[in-house]
## 1
Amino acid sequence: MGNSVNASGANQKSNRMKYVRIGILLVVVLIFVFIADITVNSYVRRILNLCAIYTILGLSMNLVNGFTGLFSLGQAGFMAVGAYCVAVFTVPVESRAAMFYLVPQNPAIANLELPFVVALLLGGFVSAFFAFLIGFPVLRLKGDYLAIATLGFSEIIRIVFTNTQTITNGALGIKGIPTINRLWWTFGIAILVVIFMFLLINSTYGRAFKAIREDEIAAEAMGISLFKHKVLSFTISGFLAGIGGGLFAALLGTVDPKQFYFTLTYNFLLIIVLGGMGSISGTIISAFIVTAGLEWLRLLDEPHAIFGWNVPLFRPGLRMVVFSILLMAIVLFWSRGLMGNQELSWEYVKKVPDKVRNAFRIKSAKGGAAK
Amino acid sequence: MTMATFMQQLTNGISLGSLYALIAIGYTMVYGILRLINFAHGDIVMMAAYFAFFGIAVFHIPWYITFLAVVLLTALLGIVVERTAYRTLRDAPRTSILISAIGVSFLLENLATYLFSGIPKAFPEFKFMTTPFSVGGVLIQPLVVVVPVVTILLLFVLLFIINKTRLGMAMRAVSKDYETARLMGIEINGVISATFGIGSGLAAVGALMWGMKYSSIQPLMGVMPGLKCFIAAVIGGIGNIKGAVLGGFILGLAEILLVAFLPSLTGYRDAIAFIILIIILLFRPMGILGEKQTDKV
């Protein structure tokens, strides 16, 4: 930021440089997606898709938890709404009768088939509407109460979906959703969401969110309507979670209520805690690390032999144990996460060598003192 | 509905309610002192049930020794959880502590799945507790009577500890004002450990009776009761022990009676607690027996 009035020219120049850098970054990402889309095999493609979806969901959770300072655990429920919208409306009509064999589907929607984009957007909007409705009573609460209440709503949504068999096929779930195979859907939407988040956070609304996070009473005294901004943040987060859920359904090809058990939310919690609460770039980096890492950790669940001796440690379940230990370790020893509430900018990258050097200098100074 | 079935449902509701009450006490005690939802409490219940399973079904230890050992082991587990996951974060932002609590809960669930496998195990049977006897046409398991009696007895013991002993006085002081209590020379860490120990011990008793009642245990069994018992504590007024017991009874009765009167809502049984929670939080956030708290700026 410029310190004097005369610096405005320099500011304009640095702003132009900033846009150029963002443009270059965008082109690089698009080229990466283009190359990845034609070269990688289906397994890697699936993981990359999941990374992009988790980026969207991580950002949606970070908007409420990291930027607005409201501890919400309702992500899985909003995802379920989006996922079921895509599932119910994009499954081919002819395969439905066989799937809804216990209870036939409600005639109002039994013959309704929508294009993927429409169903996805519908999922986002329905989810946002749910978030808006839930936000009204719930956002009056604070801290732990808010966490429990949002978790409760997420469970209620899941229980409702289990019981409304004429729409969702209950516990049997919906299979045969047309799947997305290319990377463009997920990455395209993820890029749009990232751009949207940067614009939102740097707008007056974003500044209001951050003010609420830092100090509610001070924010209110400055004339920020707490309730309006909290509901807005919660609703946008619901929309993004719905979109993420819809993509999730289209990636997996099946949905059933068990997938949206509230522990699913813990994945995104790990992502935002590792990336830093209140950092967009941190969320993106950590979404990729966590998703790929969880996939890589699958090797813990398989039996391994060292020098012919079968190590009894490796058996199904170890992966999740390691996952939860990681979550705890990050909270206990590294609560800032990768980025804290900073963003990865050119200036930040330029400072990295200095930081590394400083870290070593402190270490050597300490070593000197010890002698 | 005949009178007999109504009485049957009523006794069921009371016995479920007393189980909720026992577990809810642990939540309310921890919240009273640390202002923290101990998310792991439900999973501590689950671990206690597994301890009992291993003691009786695997190692064939007589049940009375096992029960005592289970209560002590679970109390120890509660203390260990507090030492490792909460103590280091005593001065950290509340979000960090909350995430840590979620982390412990998730860790215990996954650890149990890994160690004991996700397949449900049969809890040892206690014939003298489950063979029903008839009172005026109502079939009652002895367990249904034993559970509320044990709960009420333990409640009195706990109230005695809190109101009449030095430890209880220290607990009340810490709960009232953490900083001042420390300045007055109260050994805070000891008091907090004792609180976790007592809360977890009560949860262990709840787990034993839970196991006898439902006779099947699995790694995720603690999740729903955990959430519901927290809700029970909120209904009664969090931080208030009598309130937790009252909330437990209300929740247990509401669940059983609603399903009994409106069988079409059976699938929504688990949602009832959350709906009650949201109604309570909106209209009386301090709970039924709680005191109104004002935020200091």
Note: Chain A touches chain B through 41 residues (CB under 8 Å).
## 2
Amino acid sequence: MNSAQVPAPARAATITWRLATVAGVVTETPRARTLILDVPGWPGHRAGQHVDVRLTAEDGYQAQRSYSIASAPQDGQLALMVERLDDGEVSPYLTDVLSVGDRLELRGPIGGYFVWDVALGGPLLLVAGGSGIVPLMAMLRHREAALEIADARTRHNVPARLLYSSRRWDDVIYRSELTRLAQDDETLEVALTFTREAPPEWTGFRRRIDRMMLAEVAWPPGERPHVFVCGPTPLVEAAAAALVELGHDPALVKTERFGPTGERG
Amino acid sequence: MTEPFISRGFRGRRQAAATASQLPPGQYETRDFPVLSAGPTPRASLATWDFTVRGRGAPTARWTWDEFQALPHETVTTDIHCVTKWSKLDTVWEGVSLDTLLAEALARGVESAPYLLAVCDGGYSTNLPLADVTGGKAWVAVKFDGAPLAPEHGGPARLLVPRLYFWKSAKWVRQVRLMERDEAGFWESLGYHNYGDPWREQRYSGDL
């Protein structure tokens, strides 16, 4: 992480609240929707960053939550993926109530560590659990858009592998897009694993992400892949610890965890 | 914004008044204990663990784990507020007050200064004004809820500065560096607020 001495910053520009308009809604899984947003004045973002969303009731009561950005920086619109938490305060509003034409207050982009772009180089190793795929999808979408216009050497320099854990087939967010990306791109490999129920005749992984699986999927530590792990806390703890045990430099393993310590995705 | 924006059809879930008064703006209460860390959880061995307080000059105050455990410990019940919006109320911690550690360090010849940088295993760091960690405001905590602090929550020892957003309560803390000048820590140099007062909602650099 940072070892250089950085002076305390002079006051930076405020990350202001903006009124976005819902331009589209995509059903990803039975529990997950993507909100496609027009955001006037959006300053741009890096793949991996998130936004804060703020809801205001008529009496002035407000609630805020953070959501990862799913769209690539190159995309014209901002995409947020929201998974419905049945006992949630904000996500059921975003998945069940908010509709095309509605407005939504947000500010961002936020976060300067869990970010990747092709200029940082590769190899790129992505490890996701459940909706932890979202910021990693922004990286894959950014990578795809950047490589479309890149030369062969750049393409060669940023091979990517994704290991993505889901409970069952229906829970795999971006299933068809991931399939298409992997088919169209020889330098991208996607490996899925299922923790509850694999599809019939599934020949791939069917267990939680562990050290053996990572040893099989990941590049050797000597290749010094940039690693991004995102998902429920137990998955991230297990995967990050296993990667360090396998010899990966902890400074190259960036993590984003969500949820409490004890729950498994 | 000139006219307050209303989210069509949003009702929200208001907290009981007693809870609401404990919640800074934009925060919600959680009963869980979420984990947020930028990288893998470091695993420290208590046999080699030490805690040091360093000033500008040569003298450094150092405690081994056993020496640290022999210092007077305090039990603290406090609310904690994470910048990612969750707050956890009435949490119970045990640790050594920064007052104790700094007084001992100064007695051993460490030079005081108006700022400090907390430096941690795993490369994490955070900066604080000395005034915000003295006078019963900060601890190096080694227990949560009566049990040794779990590694994912910062064990064996983390800073506890409950008056500021919880990223200032640095996990896996190993050293306090007293500094003449304020110097941005890890998140403070990556877009988060330099001070981080939850009651003024100072989440990101640029927030007033």
Note: Chain B has one domain: 25-31+44-200.
